[in-house]
């Protein structure tokens, strides 16, 4: 069986993201530089430069490919990906599901809400959020 | 599949490499640089108590952390924890914590309702329907040649730096949607292309908040407001910003005539 793999995306560019703790120690991590993804958004050059110079400071590989090509090349036993709500990234992840088992790993929480909130207005959310927003780690036991 | 290089002689070399990778990408480099070192330096410089007093001013103590938050270089949790260490009482930094919370809130809304990202959440409350708004961003807005001095200055900052003060974002969004009657989606796409910190949740829902499709009323500003918060930073003289130089009552009559008739 091949090794697991961490697939980072543009919303999770730091080595302290919980995805690294969730994957087995020593798991290889990559960022896929996907021309089609960036072009379809489309990001301006300054956005691409910002991402690239951030990646250069990280001990990960930048792979010039499509996500599917990268997954087929590495054929990981498990693909660990930081959770995202960005629709283009969600579509990318959904497209990979047929090819590889995926574990999504959420970022450290900002606040702890007892149950999911469907607030339409910020202050409906804030009434619940303020109970833990002023606490170290948002009241979560790290 | 190719492994891309990560070591460059200097920033010029890195920029040239990215330009070659993405010849289709518009624009040029920003002076704002990515990376964890830059993020940590910015985090060390925040003044969360001063932020509460001055955040609405163009020269206020805003943190400019947003590009680093958007890319996960810093987490909301880490920034909040750092801010807590800088204050004596958490209540002193309520506005700062709320600003972080807005980002968390919009993310939760998008997670719950991804279909809202590009669709009107509610009808416009402007007296107009969606069909009354133009689909495309006018060329003079895209290029910062509207002839409205402060608006053009904000557009140039957006295009050349990839960063805008939050108040300036609201002015631009209001100008696009209400003064020019363009669909918020056209403006949201434009911001997503340029802002280093843009994500679909904060960006698109904030545009909808200004447009009134995700709020109780449209957000409108006038020249007096720009002058209060940006005097000395952009040209706020009446002769260079004629279209904005009016009272809120006069603007409501001019921009929302259908609504004014029914009130």
Structure description:
- The complex is a heterodimer of chains A (142) and B (263).
- Chain A is α/β, with parallel strands linked by helices.
- Chain A has two domains: 5-105, HUPs (Rossmann fold, 3-Layer(aba) Sandwich), CATH 3.40.50.620; 109-142, no CATH class.
- Helix content of chain A is 37%, strand content 15%.
- Chain A contains six helices and five strands; from the N terminus they run E-H-E-H-H-E-H-E-H-E-H.
- Chain A has helices at residues 18-22, 35-40, 45-55, 67-74, 87-96, 122-133, and strands at 5-8, 28-33, 61-64, 79-82, 102-105.
- Chain A has a five-stranded parallel sheet with strand order 3-2-1-4-5.
- In chain A, helix 5 links the parallel strand 4 (79-82) and strand 5.
- Chain A is globular and about 45 Å long.
- The two termini of chain A are 32 Å apart.
- The model of chain A has no long low-confidence stretch (mean pLDDT 94).
- With 263 residues, chain B is mainly α.
- Chain B has two domains: 11-112, Alpha Horseshoe (Serine Threonine Protein Phosphatase 5, Tetratricopeptide repeat), CATH 1.25.40.80; 130-262, DNA Cyclobutane Dipyrimidine Photolyase, subunit A, domain 3 (Orthogonal Bundle).
- Helix content of chain B is 52%, strand content 1%.
- Chain B has helices at 11-21, 36-44, 48-54, 66-70, 76-85, 94-112, 139-142, 149-161, 166-179, 184-194, 200-211, 223-230, 248-255, 257-262; one strand spanning 2-3.
- In chain B, helix 5 (76-85) packs antiparallel against helix 6, helix 6 packs across helix 11 and helix 9 (166-179) crosses helix 11 (200-211).
- The longest helix of chain B has 19 residues, at 94-112.
- The interface between A and B is large, with 62 and 70 residues.
